[in-house]
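Task card 7
Instruction: Convert sequence to structure tokens.
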Amino acid sequence: MRKTGHRSRAVLAVLSAAVLGLAGCDAVGGNSPGPSGSDAQREKPRTKPAPVWDRSPESVAAVGDSITRGFDACSVLSDCPEVSWATGSSEQVDSLAVRLLGESKAAERSWNYAVTGARMADLPGQMAQAATRKPELVAVMAGANDACRDTTEAMTSVADFRAQFEEAMRTLRGALPKAQVYVASVPDLKRLWSQGRTSALGKRVWKLGICPSMLGDADSLDAAATLRRETVRKRVEDYNKVLKEVCAKDRRCRFDGGAVYAYRFGTEQLSRWDWFHPSVNGQARLAEIAYRTVTARTS
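Output:
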């Protein structure tokens, strides 16, 4: 019995040493195999997800109103899309499309569906047209004509403006879920009035019906005229708030942060015919703002 007990204790000691040795190898690494299962998954290097916003899209479509059509930039009361800030080919402007794509590709891969006189209610239809081209970026500038009405009472309500812009975004998303959208703020129309009213020619053209809610009775500074202009300006600010809020709900939409509204257009940036719409120089400034926003590393 004594010999058997001694032999058993010896075997037990050897087994214990072996177990402890294996445990020691695992504790310090040694030659033990790597972790498996959930531990292995945790230790796998994670690939960085592709950014949602592509700073170099390969095609551009533009929607909006007379500003995007280059109205009154080349000749009186006429569109001049070749100087459009969004898709124009003019070297003087260096449009958003040209800056992003280069001249030759911009000629083939950019499209302008803006319409002079268009309001936000027209944007869903323009979005549907633009979507047929499958652009990677849609550039939007709309809202000035919603404030530029015969009277302040006729201006598009803020609620309707919001519903119409949301419909436009839904229209685009229904066709192109991953298209990117650049949204420009509505310009400060009162700033344009204050600059243009120094031109006798400009004021004569204004009487043909350009933005009467802001430009009508241009030289009047009485209480009624001042209130009318401030009402228009406040409505534009409300429109810009809508553009910002609706755009913020879409992961692939960038608002310019109010940059166009804040830009201090001078006489050099205004049409020499109507002193209200952007000149060629003004179109170039709009292109700069758009390009800066689209290519920014963060929105």
